[in-house]
Amino acid sequence: MTDSVLTPESILDAAEEVFRKYGPTKTTVVDVARALEVSHGTIYRHFSSKLALRDAVTQRWLQRVSAPLAAIAAEKSPADERLRQWFEQLIMIKHQKVLGDPELFATYQAIAEQAREVVEAHVEELVSQIAQIIEDGVAQEIFCSTDSLTAAQAVFNATVRFHHPVHAAEWSAPNIQSDFDQVWRLIMSGLRMPCASSAT
Amino acid sequence: MTDSVLTPESILDAAEEVFRKYGPTKTTVVDVARALEVSHGTIYRHFSSKLALRDAVTQRWLQRVSAPLAAIAAEKSPADERLRQWFEQLIMIKHQKVLGDPELFATYQAIAEQAREVVEAHVEELVSQIAQIIEDGVAQEIFCSTDSLTAAQAVFNATVRFHHPVHAAEWSAPNIQSDFDQVWRLIMSGLRMPCASSAT
DNA sequence: CAAATGACAAAAATCAATATTTGTCATTTG
DNA sequence: CAAATGACAAATATTGATTTTTGTCATTTG
Questions:
Q1: Is A22 among the domain residues?
Q2: Which of A22, A82, B79, B121 could make an SS bond with A27 (beta carbons 3.0 to 4.6 A apart)?
Q3: How far is CA B24 from CA A33, B32, B104, in A?
């Protein structure tokens, strides 16, 4: 697209646009090459395979999910409020991406199955943001936790139904928000001061 | 199989066996008819379609999941112990079914997508068993909850990663048990006495 | 000589002709 | 006459021949 200079970045730009337009299953590296007006062999000088290209696109795409969340995580507001905001935002972004653009949803599904490493890194990033908020909450004496990373993992896992794309079909149910509220209340009363006595 | 008498039950028996043997995608109603040594038209006198037959098989199959759980739910032990046992059992059964028999796993996936009503009824049954245990827990002054059904739904939803078949691929991860333990501890401290102050 | 090309083999997807399966129903059977 | 049959049309799946796509690399180009 950006004339004459061919960088990995410009390839990713073109690739992402082509993925969007043709859908993830149907796009070939020849299509991407055509969009850039180069031969498809050229793409292979920059990315070792079609999978590598798709993973790179995915990574950038997931970064655009985690960046605005990082901003929320870094705020100064009370940790309980902030954690709620953070999850509302996460859920909103995921729902939007998945329901708004069905073609992209298929990509996401394919990725989740095949680009395991990229997704795992993304999840790790998200969990560490949650851990940050929880740690702040402990300092503010709102939350009680000996190990904020462990607590963060637990919170992430307990809310999986509301943000993991495999559950996307359930998100259009009318009571999905109240289901989330219920789970949220349960989690929050587990996380909040005063500490519950040790579990059995 | 059972000679000469053809009841809906005997058809289900045969159908289930054929499903097991040939896998869910490949079995035809002709196969089921052959196993019973009748014409395939006969099957249609008892079940209005192949889908209806498959749903009926599924329903019986899911009942064999919920029956042993109902037994646990009805025990007299302390509610917290019993709830833990109940979930361990649920998870064990699901893992076994899904990982033990890959063909059957495919059936389960197909069902979850297509036989929505049957699965929904099953989930409702499970949630009502949890509600029963929680209610006992409140009476025993172990748990604190104003609405046991709502709490039950929350607990079920929060543990979805560990029993919903769409997450089966994650179950072979080495840390799945400790992930469950973490979520369980979080949930339990949310559920347990003394009641946390009202949520924001 | 660094970067891009395009001819090429191997792997994967498409397509249309063929075969199987589903579901119906008029006829047969006990 | 109630229950089962099997011939049938429509829908669906299979198959294998053909095309497209992926990935490599010796050659070309600026």
A1: yes
A2: A22
A3: 42, 12, 7
Domain carrying residue B15: 8-46
B108-135 pLDDT, tens digit per residue, is 777 777 788 899 999 999 999 999 999 9
Interface mutation target, options B186, B188, B198, chain A, most CBs of A under 10 Å: B186
**How confident is the model over A136-176, as pLDDT tens digits?**
999 999 999 999 999 999 999 999 999 999 899 899 999 99
- A143 falls within a domain: yes
ipTM for this prediction:
0.89
Amino acid at B182: Q
| pLDDT value for B200 | 44
Does residue B28 sit in helix, strand or coil?
coil
Q: Which amino acid is at B192?
A: R
Q: Are residues A162 and A96 in the same domain?
A: yes
Reduced to 3 states (helix: H, G, I; strand: E, B; else coil), residue A132 is helix
Å from the B40 CA to the D7 C1': 13
Burial class (CB in 10 A: 0-12, 13-18, 19+), A120: exposed
Q: Which residue, among A189, A194, A83, A144, has the nearest Cα to B146 in the 3D structure?
A: A189
